[in-house]
Amino acid sequence: GFGPFGEHAVNASWIAVQELEKLGLRDDVDLHVYEVPVEYQTVQRLIPALWKKHSPQLVVHVGVSGMATTVTLEKCGHNVGYKGLDNCHFCPGSQCCVEGGPECIDSVIDMDTVCKRVSALGLDVTVTISKDAGRYLCDFTYYTSLYQSRGRSAFVHVPPLGKPYTAEQLGRALQAIIEEMLD
């Protein structure tokens, strides 16, 4: 999940991830949660360091989208087009994540299947698919992680708290989504 930024003084993604941590995942899954600062340079250091430290099977990033009204599974990350300033008033001069990297990297996770299966569970949360994580720190983080992992990453956008879901609903949705991704 991410820390506060802009009008998101409380970032719903971090709250949802903390709910997931309370709920946990299956017994055979080690869950590690981190609050990622909304800073390009920190992301460029932190994401590769976390992959190296944990050698995970899968990393699932969770971000808030002020425009979202559903829980949204992002299919891919984009390398270029980063013009928005972060919490440190910084933006990469190249406006890209990885110089010389591919324009777009798809997750190896079949998001369409995950969406269908989670929707069939009858949770009180709507899950949808997207191919554009927004060219800000969500997309930047996702691409960085996809590049690091050769596609073994996922990104889930959640709406702001109460618009329309509670923290508990978002935590349960994340639990179901991640368990489905692991399957």
TrEMBL record:
GO terms for biological process: proteolysis. Keywords: Cytoplasm, Hydrolase, Protease, Thiol protease. Gene3D superfamilies: Peptidase C15, pyroglutamyl peptidase I-like. It catalyses: Release of an N-terminal pyroglutamyl group from a polypeptide, the second amino acid generally not being Pro. Its EC number is 3.4.19.3. Its main location: cytoplasm. GO terms for cellular component: cytosol. It is found in: Cytoplasm. GO terms for molecular function: pyroglutamyl-peptidase activity. Pfam families: Peptidase_C15. Removes 5-oxoproline from various penultimate amino acid residues except L-proline. Monomer. This is Pyroglutamyl-peptidase I. It comes from Cariama cristata (Red-legged seriema).
